[in-house]
């Protein structure tokens, strides 16, 4: 299993609306890290998909915390109560870890959600947090990501 355990998420879901936020909050997992491109919004956009706004609201209404950690370029996204980190350099974890430490967040409280196993899931697993992989919102994406998607398909076929 070895390498596969580092890139496989704890959970696969269709999209963010299928995440049982209440279950995580009940279990004390109240800090959510989301990828942006093809997870919360389309690649290169600045808008969270309307259907996901209720998920974010549910977390914030329960006094949960949200960090958007994107490898993408900085953009103007304004969501009250949400921290945003651009150029996160996932799967490297130092930028995310720095925020978690500065906020005094125990990793047992963290759920990390993204659409790629080689960036989002790997970073979350390296951090030791609960990881969820969602299906990408679109096939529109960076060329490097398309290469990783091809490798991801192969790895998931072997590992599952």
Describe this structure in words.
With about 160 residues, this protein is an alpha/beta fold. It has a single domain (about 1-160), classed as Rossmann fold (3-Layer(aba) Sandwich), CATH 3.40.50.1000. The protein contains six helices and six strands. The chain has helices at about 1-5, 20-25, 50-60, 95-100, 115-125, 145-160; strands at about 10-15, 30-35, 65-70, 80-85, 110-115, 130-135. It has a six-stranded parallel beta sheet, with helices on both faces. The longest helix has 17 residues, at about 145-160. It starts with a helix and ends with a helix. The mean pLDDT is about 90.
What is the secondary structure topology, with strand pairs?
Layout: H1 2-7, E1 11-13, H2 21-26, E2 31-34, H3 50-61, E3 65-69, E4 82-85, H4 94-102, E5 110-114, H5 117-127, E6 130-134, H6 143-159
Parallel strand pairs: 1-6, 2-3, 2-5, 3-4, 5-6
Number of helical segments with 4 or more residues: 6
CATH fold call: Rossmann fold
Number of separate strands? 6
Q: What percentage of the residues does DSSP assign to strands (E)?
A: 15-25%
- Report Rg: 15 Å
Secondary-structure class: alpha/beta
């Amino acid at each position: 299993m070895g390498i596969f355990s580092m890139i496989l998420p704890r959970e696969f879901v269709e999209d963010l609306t299928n995440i049982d936020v209440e279950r995580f909050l009940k279990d004390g997992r109240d800090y959510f890290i989301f990828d942006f491109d093809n997870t919360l919004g389309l690649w290169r956009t600045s808008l969270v998909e309307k259907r996901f706004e209720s998920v974010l609201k549910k977390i914030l209404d329960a006094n949960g915390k949200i960090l958007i950690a994107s490898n993408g370029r900085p953009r103007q996204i304004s969501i009250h109560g949400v921290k945003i980190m651009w150029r996160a350099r996932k799967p490297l974890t130092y930028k995310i870890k720095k925020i978690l430490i500065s906020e005094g967040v125990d990793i047992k409280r963290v759920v990390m959600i993204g659409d790629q196993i080689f960036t989002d899931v790997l970073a979350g697993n390296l951090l030791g947090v609960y990881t969820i992989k969602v299906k990408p919102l679109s096939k529109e994406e960076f060329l490097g990501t398309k290469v990783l998607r091809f490798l991801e398909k192969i790895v998931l076929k072997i590992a599952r």
